[in-house]
Amino acid sequence: MASPSTRIDDGRDVDSDNSGPMREKLSVLIVDDELLVRKVHERLVSKLEVAKQVQTQTATNGKEALDLHLSGSSFDIILVDLQMPIMDGTEELRAMGVESMIVGVTSVDAGADKEAFMEAGLDECLAKPLTADKIKSLVETLEKNK
Amino acid sequence: MERNNHLPRQVALMRQSLFDQGYLDEQFVQLEELQDDANPNFVEEVVTLYYRDSARLVASIEQALDKSPLDFNKLDSYMHQFKGSSSSIGGRKVKAECSQFREYCRTGNGEGCIRTFQQVKREYATLRKKLEAYFQLARQAGPREAASRST
Fold this sequence. Notes:
The complex is a heterodimer of chains A (146) and B (151).
Chain A: E1 23-31, H1 35-46, E2 51-59, H2 62-70, E3 77-81, H3 90-95, E4 101-106, H4 111-120, E5 124-127, H5 132-144
Chain B: H1 7-20, H2 26-33, H3 42-65, H4 72-88, H5 92-106, H6 110-141, H7 143-147
């Protein structure tokens, strides 16, 4: 199975106008009310070699995520914990016109709500714990949809 | 400069036994992989956050178990959080006891909840003790050992 980091075919044909197939920049917003989870997910994303520059930011709830967008920030991927007591912000972000890939992060036993969340505007749903591979495949999807 | 050149091996053995005896699972390895020279204490920092979260949740659950009648939704919600954070650090046995507790919440079995909570606390205390001993030994062995892992 080919992995993104070894995909070398026609590197220059990939949309990057610099050398190599690697993305220039990836910005990720991590929305979760637990510090432990924010810390782990932020580190996980930062350590990925999926772009020349990987930027991460965190928010503790949907409202903070919205405020970040209102103040002009934008992100390639937004990882949203779907079990937060305060709103996750997905519907509101979509209403604002946010086009980022919004990925819900759930615990495994949250199956029933998944459909409702997808209807609210999620692009994907991933089960905790997040892993490097899961996030890499999100970036692959991003690249494909360009 | 190694005062005791058996330490690295002791650290590796202690670490392996945590997996062999089922206290830790693959998620702990995922955390170790996030540790590097720039973040040499990452795993211990995360585990410390886990202790902090756990203390808060255990206190909340204890309080909730004192009430009558029991609010199973509340209990389940707290335990869902506890299971989640235990899962985040790879606490396999704690996670299993949490699941058992949640089963009793689902069936409204108060006695089962109370009984299982004792097991949750026991497993948590054991895990914490073992992790504290492990990190202490790893620190003694030197930063290189704290950041390394054996397969």
